[in-house]
Amino acid sequence: MAFPHRPDAPELPDFSMLKRLARDQLIYLLEQQHEVDKLYKVENKPALSSSEQLCFLVRPRIKNMRYIASLVNADKVAGRTRKYKVIFSPQKFYACEMVLEEEGIYGDVSCDEWAFSLLPLDVDLLSMELPEFFRDYFLEGDQRWINTVAQALHLLSTLYGPFPNCYGIGRCAKMAYELWRKLEEEEDGETKGRRPEIGHIFLLDRDVDFVTALCSQVVYEGLVDDTFRIKCGSVDFGPEVTSSDKSLKVLLNAEDKVFHEIRNEHFSNVFGFLSQKARNLQAQYDRRRGMDIKQMKNFVSQELKGLKQEHRLLSLHIGACESIMKKKTKQDFQELIKTEHALLEGFNIRESTSYIEEHIDRQVSPIESLRLMCLLSITENGLIPKDYRSLKTQYLQSYGPEHLLTFSNLRRAGLLTEQGPGDTLTAVESKVSKLVTDKAAGKITDAFSSLAKRSNFRAISKKLNLVCGTGMVRGVGGFIPLWSTFLGGNVLERRSWQGLDEVVRLLNCGDFAFTDMTKEDKASSESLRLILVVFLGGCTFSEISALRFLGREKGKREFIFLTTAVTNSARLMEAMSEVKA
Amino acid sequence: MDCYTANWNPLGDSAFYRKYELYSMDWDLKEELRDCLVAAAPYGGPIALLRNPWRKEKAASVRPVLDIYSASGMPLASLLWKSGPVVSLGWSAEEELLCVQEDGAVLVYGLHGDFRRHFSMGNEVLQNRVLDARIFHTEFGSGVAILTGAHRFTLSANVGDLKLRRMPEVPGLQSAPSCWTALCQDRVAHILLAVGPDLYLLDHAACSTVTPPGLAPGVSSFLQMAVSFTYRHLALFTDTGYIWMGTASLKEKLCEFNCNIRAAPKQMVWCSRPRSKERAVVVAWERRLMVVGDAPESIQFVLDEDSYLVPELDGVRIFSRSTHEFLHEVPAASEEIFKIASMAPGALLLEAQKEYEKESQKADEYLREIQELGQLTQAVQQCIEAAGHEHQPDMQKSLLRAASFGKCFLDRFPPDSFVRMCQDLRVLNAVRDYHIGIPLTYRKYRYKQLTIQVLLDRLVLRRLYPLAIQICEYLRLPEVQGVSRILAHWACYKVQQKDVSDEDVARAINQKLGDTPGVSYSDIAARAYGCGRTELAIKVWVCWSMSHAQGSRPLRAGTLTWVRARLGVFTVLLHLKNELNRGDFFMTLRNQPMALSLYRQFCKHQELETLKDLYNQDDNHQELGSFHIRASYAAEERIEGRVAALQTAADAFYKAKNEFAAKATEDQMRLLRLQRRLEDELGGQFLDLSLHDTVTTLILGGHNKRAEQLARDFRIPDKRLWWLKLTALADLEDWEELEKFSKSKKSPIGYLPFVEICIKQHNKYEAKKYASRVGPEQKVKALLLVGDVAQAADVAIEHRNEAELSLVLSHCTGATDGATADKIQRARAQAQKK
Predict the structure, then answer these.
(1) Inter-chain residue contact A113 with B548, CB threshold 8 Å
(2) Do residues A299 and A314 both lie within one domain?
């Protein structure tokens, strides 16, 4: 079960190198270069430090710049002079310096960069921790982060050798890929001649598949994220989980043995597994009864600590499960799942719509309501005008008029749209299949013109058999993440998107699906079994676990993941929401 | 020390004046000075000569030459004068050369003869021509005063911020005044002029006659007048050879002197030191120089050559074809030390040090003498101060050595003054150097008149970047004030060198500047852009962003193209924003979708107004509407402002044909007004609640009628209203009202929610009331909720619904429900049989 030890699995690349790199860089930066002796969190309040030099380690956001400006200006008013250093991570943006200049403090601060972009969250998961990527790129059309992604890919290829086979789908994926190639070219073959460690790389845009991300998650790790919010690979379990009066911060990764075994499991299996585990543990404890002194000594010195640790973790996860259970029953979770399923399968649309309306009317949760609306819109290829108006009206009445802006955002991102005349499902389907043969098809699919952006979900789902009752039902209730089918073999085996042409067209990605193979086959068979999947705009734990499952299912393959951030439906919706400051 | 005081000349009893050579002039003048228009900038500034002026009536074909030299006579610039006849030359405080032409146009040149700009002194001047002009310095800057052919005066007190002022007419003035000058008092510029025996003072309102107090009789005309550097004192030279000296306000006489020379002097300037009691005037004739003051005798010098006087803050600079000299009052400290047979502590200390070097025991004697008087501290201070006033490094050194020697015998002498003096002298000696040619005195440098910043600026103006940087480094100035500023200037100068290729300039700039803090690349790029070198502007940016984006990686062509496409465009555009007018800028942006979206984002945070303009230009009404919506809750405080913002938003939405948003916005306007009224009438917090929350708050406050009214007004659907009321009443635990409400009509949401909410509030009794009314489909659920398992079982059996049966079964617990469980099992078995 524990896949890193699976005998037939290829060995994962050693990400601890990245960790060490980041740590050493940071220590060098802070201690040696800037002699930092105390760390504070950047919050919107005056800095209490009395030292002669302030050093800010920040993301290049305008908000942060203004905070720094306010600090510096406050110091100026108070007549004290300090040195200020701003270290941007992962890179500096010109707009930030503009702000510093406009605030009149550009001359007072000096700037630096710390190109740290890859945080290994787990043995198979790297995160860039850039949640803003999603909103910045997919809503605002800001392409600056693509450079960061390209740099990160470049770093990976210098560390782990070149990637012989590249695939991508989506506009952003294509840009990132091209830019990365540019960087490689400039490097003049520094990486050439190295044996590739990772055989394939897939670049995927989030907006190719919103559906998966919008569904509630049903695997344990996903549920923990939905319920407690996992931040940077760790989670704060509140008092209701720890069954004490304190909160506890727990790292969730492969090192937590209990978690590692249940993270990819459907929630309904988790309880059974945990109780089995509890029994095993008890049995191991019980062994000590029949021991003599020497054995006992051995047991205490070698095993007891591990058992205790496991015991502690077990009780934590059982607590978390209980908490999740409680929440599920309270919020009519079953009904929600039922509605979701109905939406995915495309039946009882009217009923689902009124369920959503009731959900809004009862003010159950603004984010959940929004999520359901988006899901409805995407699966139905836009809402029919009457529903579009009434749902929005209801939502505004429940949660205030500022959400007019939220709706405008969602519309721009293509998440919540209105069916135009002649946009009914059947019409679109026939039109689209006609377009597939039409050469001009690519022209109407400009990712930036949201009007032309249609999800065509139903057609895709029919093509790929995404919604199916049994078999490889992983990740999301009854729904196979789109990626799984892409990565499930077709593309890998054929080494092209061939055969998926129509689907790619339906995804509006005709222009942006690409493959790139190196001719020479230097890559060892070992490396060809390693596949790096890059998610631009974030991925959910469900998607990760579906792919982990896929790797196991197909055997002899191992997926590793690089994402701009780990996300979930709530985070996506929050990124799109406008809230009063 | 023997002849050290040889060039000291006593004036009266208390003061000495000395004249020493600064430089022997390097220039190779062909003409006599008197054939040229001459202007020398104060504070050791440059000298401008315009040869061959028009008054000499030479052949018109020969164009005059304008030469600019440093104070040591090093040529800085030389250009052919191609413009009209020049009446007067003068230097502004920023060391810009102002050339006043006969037609009233003033041409401004830089130190290196680069044309800066020009301005006119007005129509009146143009018509009547310029007769005479003066350039004077005020605390705001530099001014120009003009005497026109119609004997009227026009002046501007600050050429940087040109405001022409025409002075009132002098009654009965038929000919040009015999002499005149600009005066600056109480921050206002006046003109003082002499006509025959009368003196007139012109301010902008009136012309008044003034008489100097205590003026000797018999004066029929004033030949020359001089105002001191600080505008405090005035000297008048009459046709009787008599000199009157007094305050510039003409209220007090200081002294007078009769030199018995009736010829008009060529120049007369004040020679005094700030804070000194001595007043003296230097008067120059063709071959004679006279220093006169409050003493019966005057000091006389013979002038071998044509000379020109430049008034300075603490003395007078005198230059001629061969030499450049400085004449000033010997400062107190120097006088104390060097006066013959002086017993001042400083003098003794200097002597002691000399003896000490000769290894003579006399050193001890002198030292003892000072110490007995307890004046050692004073002695050291004197030596330090005197060192500052010496021009020769040797003498400076020996004085400082003496001070340092004296310091050894003091327990606690703060070292700052000594250290500072050493630093200052080092800097001063450096700029006094022949090649640099800025003969600054210590006093000018130290006493607020000229700070180190200004000095650095002057060096930069002279393009002496390395020296400026060395000084910064030597004085350990903060980078931002020092090195970076100079580098930025250097870069700005560099981009103007048209003969160097863009690539080289950009690289040179990038190499030198690196990431020195405080250098504004936008200024440099702007300068390049200003010179029409757009390509270079972009390159500068690109180099810079490259060095910042990728550490020290060398430039590659590929990256360059890329950066220009991705980053360069944006940065350059952002910077061009300040250069181009807004319309052009937006038009340029429109062709750069990527830059546009970046710029929008930037504006969203930083320049909201610009964002609005941007949308306006594009006729993007949808975004414009959104913009105003955001403004309605983020920017506006007052309710009226918010409603107004919403109204604008609604209009925009209509234009965008987004009826839905427009209607929603209008609803929000109504709601806002209503909430305001509710707050006024009922108190409490209503503003900014959503409609739903507003109604809820009303019900919770017991204002049911109003709640109903609101629901009707805003057409809240029945379902929502029922949910809302149900929740609110249950929160209030107003069971009576809830029951009344439930009976008001048939519930559009069924009765299960009633049961649920009662149970949630732990009121089983109330819950049971509603359970009976729940429709058949949900009855089982309701019954289970209220805990009536038996009845639930009955209903489920009646429905023959397998799912319901198992649901009831799962609720059967232990012994109590044993019978029910059996019943269900039986019913199931029966159902299966069938």
Answers:
(1) yes
(2) yes
State the count of interchain CB pairs (< 8 A) between A and B: 135
Residue B554 forms contact with A (CB below 8 Å): no
**CB-based contact, B300 to chain A, within 8 Å:** no
pLDDT the model gives residue A473: 42
CA distance B494 to A447: 45
Handedness of CA A494, A499, A502, A503 (dihedral sign): negative
Q: Which of A311, A329, A347 is the last residue of a domain?
A: A329
- On the CB side of A412, CA atoms within 13 Å amount to 18
- Give the phi and the psi of residue B244 in degrees, each rounded to 5: -105, 130
What's the pLDDT score for residue B707? 86
Is A358 close to B549, i.e. CB distance below 8 A? no
Q: Measured between CA atoms, how close is B29 to chain A, in angstroms?
A: 46
A214 found inside a domain: no
Average pLDDT over residues A453-468: 58
pLDDT digits (tens, 9 = 90+) for B409-468: 888 888 888 888 888 888 888 888 888 888 888 877 765 556 787 888 888 888 888 888
Q: How many residues does chain A have?
A: 581
Tell which residue, B269, B387, B386, B246, has the closest CA to residue B326: B269
How many independent structural domains does chain A possess? 5
* Mutation site, B603, B614, B660, interface A, largest A CB count within 10 A: B660
Q: What is the pLDDT of residue B748?
A: 83
Question: What ipTM was assigned to the predicted interfaces of this complex?
Answer: 0.77
3-state secondary structure of A483: helix
In terms of domains, do A414 and A426 share one? no
**Cβ-Cβ contacts under 8 Å, B714 against chain A:** 397
- The reply to whether residue B664 touches residue A580, judged by beta carbons under 8 angstroms, is no
Same domain, yes or no: A107 and A124: no
Contacts of A448 in chain B (CB under 8 A): 593
Domain CATH code at residue A71: 3.40.50.2060
Tell me: do A315 and A248 sit in the same domain.
yes
Q: Is the pLDDT of residue B24 over 80?
A: yes
pLDDT of residue A564: 92
Give per-residue burial for A70-90: e unless 16+ CB within 10 Å, then b.
Answer: ebbeebeeeeeebebbbbbbb
Distance from CA of A312 to the nearest CA of B (A): 32
Q: How far is B504 from chain A (nearest CA, A)?
A: 21
Query: In the structure encoding, which two tokens stand for residue B335, read together?
Result: 């006088």
What is the residue type of B414? P
pLDDT, position A348: 80
Among B277, B258, B183, smallest CA distance to B216 is for B258
Q: Which of A329, A354, A371 is the last residue of a domain?
A: A329
pTM of the entire predicted model: 0.59
Residues A145, A137: Cα–Cα separation, whole Å: 8
Q: Which of residues 522-541 of B touch A (CB under 8 A)?
A: 522
Best mutation target, A67, A88, A94, to test chain B (most B CBs within 10 A): A94
Q: What is the tens place of the pLDDT at every residue in A136-183?
A: 888 887 778 888 898 888 888 888 888 888 888 888 888 888 888 888
pLDDT in tens, A329-377: 765 677 787 888 888 877 788 888 888 888 888 888 889 899 999 988 8
Domain shared by A401 and A412, yes or no:
yes
Q: How confident is the model at residue B556 (pLDDT cuts 50, 70, 90)?
A: very low
User: Is residue A342 included in any domain, yes or no?
Assistant: yes
One domain, residues A266 and A339: no
In a mutagenesis test of the B interface, which of A62, A332, A397 is the best target, namely the one with the most B β-carbons within 10 Å? Answer: A397
The domain of A429 spans: 422-450
- Whether residue A393 lies within 8 A of chain B, CB to CB, comes out as yes
Which residue has better confidence, A560 or B205?
A560
Q: CB B626 to CB A405 under 8 A?
A: yes
For residue A443 the two structure tokens come to 């022209």
- Residues of chain B found within 8 Å of residue A107, distances taken between Cβ atoms: 480, 484, 517-518, 520
Read off the pLDDT of each residue in B657-682 and give the average, rounded to a whole number: 87
Do A523 and A496 have their domain in common? Answer: yes
At A7, is the pLDDT very low, low, confident or very high (cuts 50, 70, 90)?
Answer: low
Residue A463 lies in a domain: no
Strands (E), A216-286: 234-237, 248-251
CATH of the domain at A128: 3.40.50.1910
The CATH architecture annotation of domain B26-174 reads: 7 Propeller (2.130)
Q: Max CA-CA distance within chain B?
A: 150
Residue A439: pLDDT over 50: no
If asked whether residues A486 and A516 sit together in one domain, one would say yes
